[in-house]
Specification:
By secondary structure, this protein is mainly alpha-helical. It contains two helices and two strands. The radius of gyration is 34 Å and the shape is rod-shaped.
Length: about 130
């Protein structure tokens, strides 16, 4: 307080906020619970992002007129392969039983490293066919 007679200011002694009764104090347990909550939220967001990226990783179907597909003689239906142009082709060869096919043999389509980011038909064929062992 400022007094008229004496020009000085009274200052209250410094008090540690943790010593004040009724004040909210964060305990170690509450910090741990907050960290767990943050972890669970981040984990669920990360899992959702991973699932979304895997769904997008499937990619579009490869078109037969795609430059890479044309170069390798890709056909979505192996029975339509020009045998004169590709004498290596034999009946029964298809992407689903090729070593490069990344889908299951029962899948209608799957990935192939030759056509990154695109799906090939399980019943398809290209000149890079290599029988699955």
């Amino acid at each position: 307080m400022l007094s008229d007679n004496n020009a000085h200011i009274d200052v209250e002694p410094a008090v540690n906020p943790a010593d004040r009764p009724g004040r909210y104090q964060v305990t170690t347990l509450e910090k741990t619970m907050t960290n767990r909550r943050e972890f669970i939220v981040q984990l669920s967001l990360g899992t959702g992002a991973l699932a979304a990226s895997q769904a997008m990783a499937a990619g579009p179907m490869l078109a037969e007129n795609d430059a890479q597909a044309t170069a390798l003689g890709y056909k979505a239906d192996a029975t339509k392969v020009d045998v004169k142009k590709f004498p290596k082709y034999a009946a029964g060869q298809a992407c689903k039983n090729c070593q490069l096919y990344q889908g299951k043999p029962t899948d209608a389509a799957g990935g192939c490293p030759l056509f990154a980011g695109k799906q090939v038909a399980g019943a398809g064929w290209c000149s890079a066919y290599a029988k699955k062992a």
